[in-house]
Structures are given as C-alpha cells and as structure tokens.
Amino acid sequence: MSLTPPFRARRGTPPASRTPRAPRTSRLTRVALAVLASGGLLAAAAPAPEPLGIGDPLFPHLGNPGYDVLAYDLAFTYGGDNTKPLPAVTTVDARVTDRLERINLDYTHGTVQSVAVDGRPAEFVRSGEDLVVDPGRALEAGERVRITVAHRSDPTGPQGAGGWVRTADGLAMANQADAARRVFPSNDHPSDKAPFTFHVTAPKDLTVVANGRRIGSVLSGATRTWLYRAAEPMATELAQVSIGRSTVLERTGPRGLPVRDVVPTADVTLMTPWLKRTPSHLEWMERKTGRYPFETYGVLIASADTGFQLETQTLSLFERSLFTASGLPDWYIESIMVHELAHHWFGNSVSPRRWADLWLNEGHATWYEMQWAEEEKGVAMTTRMRQAYAESDGWRKAGGPPAAPRPPAAGQQISLFRPVVYDGSALVLYALRQEIGTATFERLERRWVTDHAHGTASTDDFVRLASEVAGRDLGGFLHGWLYGEKTPPMPGHPDWRAAAPVKAAQPGKETVEGPGHPHHFTGPAAGKR
Q1: Residue 259 pLDDT more than 90?
Q2: Do residues 498 and 301 make contact, with C-beta atoms less than 8 angstroms apart?
Q3: What is the biggest distance separating any 2 CA atoms in the chain, rounded to whole angstroms?
Q4: Which of 8, 65, 96, 225 would be a feasible disulfide site paired with 201, CB 3.0-4.6 Å?
C-alpha cells in the first residue's frame, strides 16, 4: 500500500454488524438466547456462539481456527447502482484441521439469506463480526467441507471502512487490512491464502475485471457474466473486482507476460503514457528479485478518493488523482507504481504470517521504490535514508518499532500504516545491507522470495534466512533494528544522528504519513514544500 498526500487516516467508527431477520429462529440462536436467559447455566453443555480469531496480536478477532481454506468462489450480481447491495453467493472449500462443531467465518456489514454445508441447509447466527455456522454434525480433522453462503454485499458505509470502493462509474475493492469481511464471508487473515474464482454479472455496457486471468464471458439479454480465476493462492485482503465504464489496455511484459491495465474509457489517452512504463518496471524488478510470481499483472485506475494505492494481486489499485492532481514529481509517481509492483513479491507472494510482520511488506516495497528512483532517475537513496534515520526515533515512539507495531487506533485500521512501516522499515534493510554487503544482501532477497513463494513467512523466518545467507548469526544485530525503542547506530555512517522524538500521538488522533510525504523530499528534485 502507498498512502496519498496528505496521508491522514480517515476518521469514523466501524458500523455495527447487521443481523438479518431469519424466517425461523435457528438452533444456534435458540442456544444463545437460552444461555442469556438462564444466566449461563447451559454454557458448559452448549456454549453460546461467539466470534473467534486466530490470535493475531494486532487483530485478535481476525481469522478463524480449525480449518484451512482451499478455494474461494465468489459470485456477485451488480444491477448498475453502486449504492445498492449486490446479491452474492460465496462458496468456501476448506480442509478441517481440528475437530469442529461450528464453523466461524469473518463477515460483517452485509446480510445473509441462507447457508449450506456440503449442499445441505445449515443453521447460522451472527455473533459480533462472525458468521457462525452449525454444520449439523461434528467435523473431524482431515475432512473437506464446502460452505455456501447466499448473502447481500453492501457497498455503502463510511469511506474509510474499506471493502467496496464506490467509483464515479461503478465499484472496485480495497480490503486491506481487515475489510474483506465487509464484502464476502471468509477466513479474513493473510496467513490463510487460497485460489479465487469470480463470477460477476453486470449490465452489458459495463466492463468487469478481477484478479487473475479472464476465462470468458457470457452475454444474456441486457447483462453479461464475466468469469475470472486467480490460480495462485491469494490473501483475502488482496481480492479485487472492478466494475465500470472501463477500457482494458493489453500489452506484454517480460517473457510474454500478459499485462492488462483497466482505465476509465474517457481517460485512455491521458493515462496511456504512464501505463506504457509498466513492462519496464517489471523488467527492472525481475533483475532484482527474479521472475514475476503470478500469471498476469496490470494497473487499475479508479475514479475514487481512497487516500492510498493498493497492491491488489495481479491488478494494483491506483487513484486517478495520483496521476492528475497529486502535485508529486513525475519520478516519484512512477516510483509509487514500482512500490505496488514490488509488493507482488513482498506481501502478495510472500505474505505476512501475522500483521506485526507488515514491515516485511512495506519496508521491502519502499526499498525497491527508492532503489528504482536512484538507479533510473538519479534520486539518491542515501539522502532519503539519512532523513529517515533522523526521524526514526520519533516514528518508533509514535507507532512502535518496525516488527512490533502498536495496534491501530480503534475504528481506524488504516492507521496501522505509519511512517515506521515504510521508510522506517526500509531503514532496517539499509542497515542490513550496510552490515552484510550488497552481494550478500541481494542473495538474501532472492532466496527470501524463492524459498517462501506463494506462502507466508514471519520476521523470525527473515532473521533466520539472513543469518544463513550471511554465514553468521544476525539475530543480535537485527533485534535492535526490529524491536528497539531507539534506532541503533547505522553501520558505515557514524555521523548519522536521530532527532529527539516529538510527543506520541494520542489514541484516535494518529496521523499516517506514507512514502513520498513531502517532508521526505530533499534536494533539487523535491521542489519546495
């Protein structure tokens, strides 16, 4: 993710879950009501349904224990009005990993009409931000199960809540960090990735594009149904569906890689000079980190005010205004394009085990953004890193160290994306390269994206691999950089000094500054603040 100036987290509180009125009271609901009525006397025999989580320190109620998702199949019907809920059917194929009497899915904001388990109607109840399903029998470890949920996916709500993004001509998605549950029922945590299939029906004069490759489309009267498939595992936060009056521009990248960009039809001429640069960005990244890890890539230009750009898998989301009204230098806009592309290695293919491992995503994407600007545009990385070093203690005080960030402000999940996870985390990589040398660092980077391709990995995994590639234990060196309240001395730069940190932001009043905030610009390329 890249945040757009002025890089401020949007305010607002998350909407309450909407509990649908079911045609009959389910057994799960009756149990819950009975427990409340009896003061908990039945809890030992039949505990009330409750929201669960996998224990992520930053998002404790995200994800669900007891199963591993094998595949998602999402079907949406869009009637042409982006203020009305979309009829939808979500199918989740999963493997049970622990004995389950109930199945929890992350889902909030939308309504649920029915649930089936392995084709049989199942009872369900909403609990907090979970959809709790009774499969009708206990499911044993090793079993495969299919959960089918008929629901309505609501595109309305606070702008900063995430999920569906209403554009000038339709819809797009922005699910990071925890907003996929506002769009479809899921195991909404990046540690559980799976392939996705999308079926989207829309008025025939609109264009639909989603993650992965287009399999085909079928015209039926006034509507067309589009089929897309993302073959490689994908985190729910990276799902993307674009519906609008768009043109798809197709070209090829390295080794014939299909590249397709999605642009408002009225903006094709305006955007083409920017988008033609993507194949060269792909070539540059492949020289640094190896083969692009997915089956296609492209840029989605959305006429919407999001405040950020987002690395949705195989189809990165960009605000139209970044290219038309951001006021940023051209070299920096292009480096942001590289930032989102770099995420396809760091964050999309190699996904964080926990949200506290976010620095691995954003630190690496910022690193390659800066390295591209240095090599291709002559903007010195060292200048930006020295400025980051000066501010690092303040960032750590305000948001925690890179690998131990403080939780986001309540109701402002985007506030997790603080300066310390961007330039502050790229600073960790700079220090590591200073310590082990450029050649060893580059071997580490290639090993990282190869060894963990299409999986998940943690900060501990990175420290272990760095030590292995360097041939010595780097745990002590990296610990201070990753977890210290104070920024350690920079190898090779004994003259660098950290400025005294300002007072930490109060909860609920955090300011998020992304890469490329004007105060990061130094030297003649920056212009005046």
Answers
A1: yes
A2: no
A3: 72
A4: 225
Backbone angles phi, psi at 45, to 5 degrees: -85, -40
Cβ neighbourhood burial of 363 (10 Å; 0-12, 13-18, 19+): buried
Q: Which residues contact 477 (CB under 8 A, 6 or more apart)?
A: 432, 435
Which among 370, 367, 364, 368 is positioned nearest to 352, based on CA atoms? 364
∠ CA 443-446-450, nearest 5°, is: 135
Q: How far apart, in whole angstroms, are the C-alpha atoms of residue 209 and residue 246?
A: 9
Say if residues 201 and 225 touch (Cβ distance below 8 Å). Answer: yes
The 10s digit of each residue's pLDDT in 457-498 is 999 999 999 999 999 999 999 999 999 999 999 999 999 998
Q: Residue 163: its pLDDT value, please?
A: 95
Cβ–Cβ < 8 Å for 48, 125:
no
Residue partners of 491: CB distance under 8 A and separation at least 6: 431, 434, 435
Distance CA 274, CA 266 (A): 15
- In this structure, are residues 248 and 217 in contact, taking their beta carbons and an 8 Å threshold? no
